[in-house]
């Protein structure tokens, strides 16, 4: 029986990146309010400072800070009121020594003033004079011009996933259209003679289809556009025909199941044939996930992936390879992670890296990682895990209390 020729995780990733060089996802211009959860395909640079002028943080009186020195409840300072700034308007007066002017929250600080005394610490002595009961330092209750965003600053970097806060920043700069990446389109094919729709009661020897549902949800969680999901029997020619049809419309065709070297496993042959012999990876030195196959068809620009049939293995390989590649190609940040101490000793898998699921436990100010054990065909193990860490293929194991980097699922 032919054995899989495995690649390390690092070598497999490098091979995919090299094969898809120049195949960066296309970009599209969107209205700002339509861009939520999309990935920026350009840096956002500030063409102006924010705020554009000095603003008051409170309702109060703009003053020269030195005039308030020594002011207290028992010994107020008396200042002459020379004007009032209206909300949304500019100041038409100058604050000089011994004078002040009223400013609302967000209002423009008049020329000459360098601080604001909160209204609660002020009292009108008469129509033109103000008693100040608080001593303020230079810059107190004032937002300087450009204090939030400087002119010329790269405010949001290419590859950022747009959240409500990014939309707010762009609105503050007057950016109402943004260039974002078009998400990869994906077709998901789950194969197996034993698979039935989840709505059916399986007969002896049958199981409900899990992978097409889990992988579809996983793809959408990463921003991919799922075009089609189908469940097919392990018949090579009909399966190959569906793959070829899908390659005409999809950036990524993913086949779950049929990737090992069993009697009816035809995925490897199909990927070789539909990519014109351009299969890149025939197995990963990874537990779980060894029977994973990747091919790239230059003529259609389609990545064709054969994932293991076991749900846990399929989802973890999707996470470590497919999602990683998409994030890399769209300049996204590395996955969120934290360091945690192991709760127990853990043996490694000789010759293979191990993707170990863990549950995170917080004790006082530190996190601990408790291994979640279960066979790769048991989907419930994923629901009990918060994340995973990678044990290197040359590691004999991990010792109790040793720190590991845990990536969130």
From TrEMBL:
Top class in the EC scheme: transferase
- Residue span(s) of domain MoaB/Mog: 187-328
Family annotation (Gene3D superfamilies)? MoaB/Mog-like domain, MoeA, C-terminal, domain IV, Molybdopterin biosynthesis moea protein, domain 2, Molybdopterin biosynthesis moea protein, domain 3
Q: Which cofactor does it need?
A: Mg(2+)
Q: What lineage does UniProt assign to this protein's organism?
A: Bacteria, Bacillati, Bacillota, Clostridia, Lachnospirales
| Keyword annotations from UniProtKB, A to Z | Magnesium, Metal-binding, Molybdenum, Molybdenum cofactor biosynthesis, Transferase
Family according to the record: Belongs to the MoeA family.
Protein's name according to its UniProt entry: Molybdopterin molybdenumtransferase
Alphabetical list of InterPro entries matching this protein:
MoaB/Mog-like_dom_sf (IPR036425), MoaB/Mog_dom (IPR001453), MoCF_biosynth_CS (IPR008284), MoeA-like (IPR038987), MoeA_C_domain_IV (IPR005111), MoeA_C_domain_IV_sf (IPR036688), MoeA_linker/N (IPR005110), MoeA_linker/N_sf (IPR036135)
């Amino acid at each position: 029986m032919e054995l899989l020729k495995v690649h390390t995780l690092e070598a497999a990733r490098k091979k995919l990146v090299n094969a898809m060089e120049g195949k960066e996802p296309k970009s599209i211009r969107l209205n700002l309010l339509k861009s939520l959860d999309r990935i920026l395909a350009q840096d956002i640079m500030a063409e102006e400072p924010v705020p554009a002028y000095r603003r008051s943080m409170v309702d109060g009186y703009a003053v020269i800070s030195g005039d308030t020195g020594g002011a207290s409840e028992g010994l107020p300072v008396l200042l002459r009121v020379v004007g009032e700034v209206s909300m949304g308007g500019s100041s038409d007066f100058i604050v000089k020594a011994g004078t002040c002017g009223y400013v609302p929250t967000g209002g423009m600080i008049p020329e000459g003033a360098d601080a604001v005394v909160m209204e609660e610490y002020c009292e009108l002595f008469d129509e033109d004079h103000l008693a100040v009961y608080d001593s303020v330092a230079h810059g107190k209750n004032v937002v300087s011009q450009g204090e939030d965003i400087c002119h010329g600053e790269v405010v949001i970097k290419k590859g950022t996933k747009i959240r409500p806060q990014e939309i707010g920043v762009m609105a503050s700069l007057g950016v109402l259209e943004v260039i974002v990446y078009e998400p990869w389109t994906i077709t998901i094919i789950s194969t197996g003679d034993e698979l039935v729709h989840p709505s059916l009661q399986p007969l002896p020897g049958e199981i409900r289809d899990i992978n097409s549902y889990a992988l579809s949800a996983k793809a959408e969680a990463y921003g991919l556009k799922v075009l089609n999901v189908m469940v097919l029997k392990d018949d090579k020619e009909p399966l190959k025909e569906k793959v070829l049809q899908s390659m005409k419309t999809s950036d990524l065709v993913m086949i779950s199941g049929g990737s090992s070297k069993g009697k009816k496993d035809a995925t490897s042959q199909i990927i070789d044939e539909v990519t014109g012999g351009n299969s890149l990876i025939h197995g990963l030195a990874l537990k779980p996930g060894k029977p994973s196959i990747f091919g790239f068809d230059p003529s259609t620009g389609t990545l064709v992936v054969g994932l293991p049939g076991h749900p846990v293995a399929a989802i973890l390989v999707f996470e470590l390879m497919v999602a990683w590649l998409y994030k890399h190609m769209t300049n996204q940040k590395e996955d969120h992670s934290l360091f945690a101490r192991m709760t127990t000793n853990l043996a490694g898998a000789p010759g293979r890296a191990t993707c170990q699921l863990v549950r995170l436990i917080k004790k006082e100010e530190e996190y601990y990682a408790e291994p979640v054990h279960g066979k790769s065909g048991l989907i419930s193990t994923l629901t009990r895990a918060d994340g995973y860490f990678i044990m290197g293929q040359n590691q004999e194991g991990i010792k109790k209390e040793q720190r590991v980097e845990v990536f969130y699922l």
